[in-house]
Amino acid sequence: MRAKRAIWAVAAFAVIALAIAGPQSCTRGPAGASVGELARERGLSEADITAALKTYLPTGQLDEYVMFSSGGHSGQVLVIGVPSMRLLKVIAAFTPEPWQGYGYGAGGTMEALEGGLVNGKEVLWGDTHHPAISETDGEYDGQFLFIDDKANARVAVISLKDFETKQVLHNPLMGSDHGATFVTPNTEYVIQSSQYAVPLDGSYADLSEYQERYRGAVTFWKFDRAAGRIDPSRSFTLELPPYWQDLADAGKGPSMGWVFLGSFNTEMATGGIETTGVPFEAGASANDMDYLHAINWQRAEQVYQSGNGLRRIQGMSVIPLDVSISEGLLYLIPEPKSPHGADVTPDGRMIVTAGKLDPHVSVYSFEKIQDAIANETFSGRDPFGVAILDFDAVLEAQVELGLGPLHTQFDGRGGAYTSLFIETAVAKWSLEDFTLKEKIGVHYNIGHLAAAEGDTRTPDGNYLVALNKWSIDRFMPVGPLHPQNFQLIDVTGEPMQLLYDMPIGIGEPHYAQIIKADKLDPWLVYPEVGFSPHAMASDPNAVSSGEERIERNGNRVDVYMTAIRSHFTPEHIKVRQGDRVRIYLTSLETIRDGTHGFAIDKHNINVSLEPGESEVVEFVADQAGVYPFYCSEFCSALHLEMVGYLLVEP
Amino acid sequence: MRAKRAIWAVAAFAVIALAIAGPQSCTRGPAGASVGELARERGLSEADITAALKTYLPTGQLDEYVMFSSGGHSGQVLVIGVPSMRLLKVIAAFTPEPWQGYGYGAGGTMEALEGGLVNGKEVLWGDTHHPAISETDGEYDGQFLFIDDKANARVAVISLKDFETKQVLHNPLMGSDHGATFVTPNTEYVIQSSQYAVPLDGSYADLSEYQERYRGAVTFWKFDRAAGRIDPSRSFTLELPPYWQDLADAGKGPSMGWVFLGSFNTEMATGGIETTGVPFEAGASANDMDYLHAINWQRAEQVYQSGNGLRRIQGMSVIPLDVSISEGLLYLIPEPKSPHGADVTPDGRMIVTAGKLDPHVSVYSFEKIQDAIANETFSGRDPFGVAILDFDAVLEAQVELGLGPLHTQFDGRGGAYTSLFIETAVAKWSLEDFTLKEKIGVHYNIGHLAAAEGDTRTPDGNYLVALNKWSIDRFMPVGPLHPQNFQLIDVTGEPMQLLYDMPIGIGEPHYAQIIKADKLDPWLVYPEVGFSPHAMASDPNAVSSGEERIERNGNRVDVYMTAIRSHFTPEHIKVRQGDRVRIYLTSLETIRDGTHGFAIDKHNINVSLEPGESEVVEFVADQAGVYPFYCSEFCSALHLEMVGYLLVEP
Question: 0.90 cut: is pTM over it?
Answer without folding.
Answer: yes
